[in-house]
Batch of 2 targets.
Target 1
Amino acid sequence: DAGITQSPRHKVTETGTPVTLRCHQTENHRYMYWYRQDPGHGLRLIHYSYGVKDTDKGEVSDGYSVSRSKTEDFLLTLESATSSQTSVYFCAISGGGQDGYTFGSGTRLTVV
Amino acid sequence: SQKIEQNSEALNIQEGKTATLTCNYTNYSPAYLQWYRQDPGRGPVFLLLIRENEKEKRKERLKVTFDTTLKQSLFHITASQPADSATYLCALLMDTGRRALTFGSGTRLQVQP
């Protein structure tokens, strides 16, 4: 999607290993978000950022950490991956207020 | 608890008909509501926003209504086409302490030619 890229697009990792997903934007938007999407649950917020070094937890933050050292990059880290973290992860950006979100193409993560 | 409900069953309609999708929410009075479209393997795409003081919003073949008394939004696609087949998500800012949207689980629309 224009202005936002996620990497990698697909990843298979073993239980217990650390994993970092990257979200990069070129829109200079203040807000960045990480969601996971699972069948039957829809999109659930993991963490979000409202500025450089400013982050907050979402509804499913356990087992995840984030960092935002630059406006354009928002990293999601699974410190020790578990099978329950197998999911599709979406990053989104927003200019704030009532702006609609722009989503990335997603990362399909499989923990075996 | 606060939640958003969308019909989890797929909606199947014939081409040319009007599709109507429902989004219900509980225990909150959002200032606005958004609708997104998601195609398989892709991220959601923002379609429309409607504010609490707007009863209806239109964009081309799309129409959204927002009834804050019923706590419900209806999303209409008129003269539907097979290309409209997708999952449609509604989203609300349900927790002002957390500045992020809460999404419904979506309703899959299938338009038959």
Note: The longest strand of chain A covers residues 42-51.
Target 2
Amino acid sequence: DAKTTQPNSMESNEEEPVHLPCNHSTISGTDYIHWYRQLPSQGPEYVIHGLTSNVNNRMASLAIAEDRKSSTLILHRATLRDAAVYYCILRDGGGSNYKLTFGKGTLLTVNP
Amino acid sequence: EPEVTQTPSHQVTQMGQEVILRCVPISNHLYFYWYRQILGQKVEFLVSFYNNEISEKSEIFDDQFSVERPDGSNFTLKIRSTKLEDSAMYFCASSVLRGSYEQYFGPGTRLTVT
């Protein structure tokens, strides 16, 4: 799996936007960019994924650089419930790779 | 909203005993997975399962581990002879398809081996 690099931790204030960066300079053409998060004492939770174009869903937005070597997960208004570890994961959409390979992720702290 | 469920939430067992962890994936999903997370460490892939056979497994998934889909709803992970280092959170996940599609995780089973 191609490697991703994320900051160990970030801090935000409640109701402010949060931009979580991810670098993936060795991404291949068939790799999808996935974001998951893990709230304390829970299983990982799917957030969003994309290939080339920016994506929006009810939880977040995903901004993908034009060269696809980096991406940013955007939480438009952070809440206390968004405090979690956020994982940026690359998955080959065309191959036989079924698994998710988790790194250490970014620990997001949301201040009230 | 459909969700993956896992039982039990916490299992305590003695070293050398067999344990079976149970999962009920989302009903229309076709791909099933087990992951584990040792306390304070990364989430690690164990095995994926499709069409009643293992699709992929990690180095962790040795002969002590097995998976089974005994009926149309359950998906189980068996550890034949537990070791202290098997103590971890075990997460089941399922997905509609493979590849780019999202995986839905259960709440996990905390396995404690004494």
Note: Chain A touches chain B at residues 32, 34, 38, 42-46, 49, 51, 87, 91-104 (CB under 8 Å).
